[in-house]
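During the second year of the project, the team shifted from modelling isolated chains to modelling whole assemblies. The rationale, set out in the original proposal, was that interfaces cannot be judged from single-chain predictions alone. As a representative example for this report, we include one of the complexes processed in the last quarter. Its constituent sequences, exactly as entered into the pipeline, are reproduced here:
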Amino acid sequence: MALNNNSNSKNTPLQPLIQINQAGTKYRLEPYKNKPRFCTNCKHWGHYSSKCKNKTRCNNCGGTHKGKCLRAQPKCAQCLGPHLPKSPACQATVREINLINEMEIQQIDYKTARKKT
Ligand SMILES: [Zn+2]
Ligand SMILES: [Zn+2]
Ligand SMILES: [Zn+2]
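Output from the structure prediction step:
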C-alpha cells in the first residue's frame, strides 16, 4: 500500500509521539502505522479531502457558509455536538481512533475495520 506521500521518508528523523495540527488537536503518531483519516473539506472522519464529494463545511460551525464564521460556540459537522469535528469529545473521533486500533491489533485494512465497528 503506497498511501504515504512522503517522498523522503527514508531519511526523516523520528517524529514526536504527539503532533499538534492546525486545529490544535493532539495526535498520536506512533506506534500506529495507520493514521486516522480526516477530510479537511467536509470535516468528517473516514476519508481524505481528495476523495470527498461533499460540500465544504466550516470547521467551527459545520455550516456551508462562505467567509468568516460568526458562530461563537463550535458545532460539530459530524454529530452536531458543541465541539470541533476533531475533538476527543466527538463520538466520531472516538470511533475513528477505535477503528485504527482495530486495524493495528487485527492487522486488517481500513475497509474491513470500518465494517466491523
Ligand atoms: Zn469529505
Ligand atoms: Zn462557520
Ligand atoms: Zn462531533
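The longest strand covers residues 18-20. Residues 36 and 96 are 6 Å apart (CA to CA).
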